[in-house]
Amino acid sequence: xxxxxxxxxxIIGLSVGLVTLVFRLVLTVLAVMVAVYKHRNPxxxxxxxxxxxxxxxxxxxxxxxxxxxxxxxxxxxxxxxKNPVIASIMALAAIVAKSDGAITRQxxxxxxxxxxxxxxxxxxxxxxxxxxxDYGKSHPEEYQIFTQxxxxxxxxxxxxxxxxxxxxxxxxxxxxxxxxxxxxIRKIILxxxxxxxxxxxxxxxxxxxxxxxxxxxxxxxxxxxxxGYDFGQNKENLLKKYSEVLGVxxxxxxxxxxKAYRKLVKEYHPDKLAAESMPGDYVKFANxxxxxxxxxxxxxxxxxxx
Length: 306
What we know:
Elements: H1 2-37, H2 42-51, H3 56-61, H4 71-74, H5 84-98, H6 105-119, H7 123-127, H8 130-138, H9 143-153, H10 157-171, H11 179-192, H12 196-207, H13 235-246, H14 254-268, H15 270-275, H16 280-305
């Protein structure tokens, strides 16, 4: 009898323990999701809630984290009481739009569409950022401050590249990127951590200039696929080109190539970008990038295997 009673106690104790563990794990997953949404450290809060479940209450009470901004900007109408990331994107867009001397309605509409889609704001709330746009026009020398604010908040390459895409799209509204716009964009995207190759690739998605000979067609997006490699180039040029696509050196071992390939596929995967409500045009650009990345990986894999 005592044995049966002890067995029942053990079973009940195990069941309670399992229920408690499952509850903690579910609460931890919830805490991680909330931490990501509020731009808090998900690892720190996940561990805290796993050990001390009651800390999830603190997390729910915490406001959404925004990056710190320089003291002089806090007093400016362009940033006071506003989301500093949106204000910074507006300011950067204004710098690029103004760099060729004229700002068009098409450029402003494109910017508003991007902000509305990315941040879910419209109407009066969106129009409140007009002062941020005006501030950028008047203070192009502060582009490094604006890019730093964005990077402090969004430490993700896919977001940086989408912003670079926006800036190029603004410059392309009149059909081409002027020399002044080109200089300004290059300075900004360098601060965003976007490479020279990625910048050229973004421009090519609009202009189809054949500086990298990736694809051909009319202005717009190429929905076709490239069949095989460009054998019009010698082996050294192809090795250089495809190494640049993956962001590795020409001497990189296959393990490094594979690591770079997986990282880029994760960043540019169209399904992920569509789920995150990236602009449709950027998702199309990402599709083309995925094709280039796959092509580069297959080429380097074949070359380095021989």
